[in-house]
Amino acid sequence: MSVLSSKTFTRILGAELDKLMTLPLIWHTLISTFMVNIILAAAYTTSSLHAEAGTQNILNIGLASMGYVQAGFIIIGIVAVCSEYTGGQIRTTLTTIPWRGWQLTAKYVALAIVTIPAALIIAATGVLYPYIMMRDTASVAIEINTLIATLIGATGYLTLTTLLSAALGSLIRRTTPVLVTLVSYYFIVGPLMRDALPSIKNYFPDTAGYYMYMVPYANEINALTSVQGTGIVMVWTLILIIIAIVFYRKRDA
Amino acid sequence: MLTINNLVKHRGNQEILSGISFTAKPGRVTGFLGPNGAGKSSTLRILLGLDRATSGSALIDGKPFADLQHPLATVGALLDGSGAHRMRTGRAHLRWIARAAGLSRARVEEVLDIVGLTHAAGKRVGSYSLGMGRRLGMAAALLGDPAILVLDEPVNGLDPQGIRWIRTLIRERAQSGHTVLLSSHLMGELAETVDDVVIMNRGKIVADGTLEEVIGHYSTLEEAFFAMTSEHTGDVV
Prior knowledge:
heterodimer; A: 253 residues; mainly alpha; globular; B: 237 residues; alpha/beta; Rossmann fold
């Protein structure tokens, strides 16, 4: 990629942030994801309150909805990129910012800037809800370091999943095929592959990502540490981003 | 100055541009004509860096589009459609473009006023009529006050007042030394606006000259166009 001044890159980043912030679908998806997370947290909490006392972990209850919440972040990643191809906006983008590699990089950075706080808020409310509802029971004590590490892991996982989805969106360019591909992987193919290929399941982005925020059970064999999980998901995301940028620079808009 | 030099473009096994060469000069309006599928849009897309040429070059003041330091202040482009996402408001669309180019929000309001879209700037682009979409595209093209305008069917969907406004704007731009490349199907409209004419047919240039030269012994530009682009008379010029 050609050299670009930091001032120019800052302007491009600002423009990409403007695009994200003024796209209603991004906000609708974030608010819907937040609401669904609260509803699921309430359902899991109610279910746990009726379970045997002392057996439930607040973090596990609060993050049990992550599997569903990630769908919202997948949509955000796809919409951020594929919206360029609605109404011919890509033509405006590339005639305004013809430095394709930098433009797409700025889009990913902008997406991360929007996703990180949103993911943190959503993950934190998921944990906070059961904590408030179950604070009178004996088993709610959470170690603050564990809480912080778990929330950072969950935020990181949702952010990387969003970026991975955006990178795939850049390659395929059409919303529906990308959405079908990713939802099929995360909700059907991924879980099936975990059972079918147990020896390599930890290298899949969904399984590795699980260890970014969930503390493995003491008797779990071949469990990853959160650092290992983060590394694997990060490698998947970076590889897809690099491929996306290479293709984006080479092909016709 | 726009310089298209021996431009070739292959798509699959098909050659859609076969050695296109022409120039659009400062201070003149160059009409760019051709039937559907002639290769006009492909030429403009390569000129604007959207598509890659198989060979040849399309230069803006001697540089490829991607090498321009300030693209929005150099070339204002209007291609088909509004170029905006239908869920975003017209004002928000222009604001992100202005942000990318380092222009002020006041300039956004100025161009909205110039194209007569201030009253609808807060509405979503999806609710715009075809003509309003073209006005928004025109606002984006004028945002950087560029020295060169590349306009593909700018009057498409505009009412008579809008057509007159575009015609006046284009002529004023050329008179003040700007370069205008104008693609249109409306022969009568073009004949009243352009200084030079380039006609394409099936990926090749079939006429290139001043308006008078291209019309030649025909009575109108339209007559000359049909003579040059109809099935068996492609080698008239």
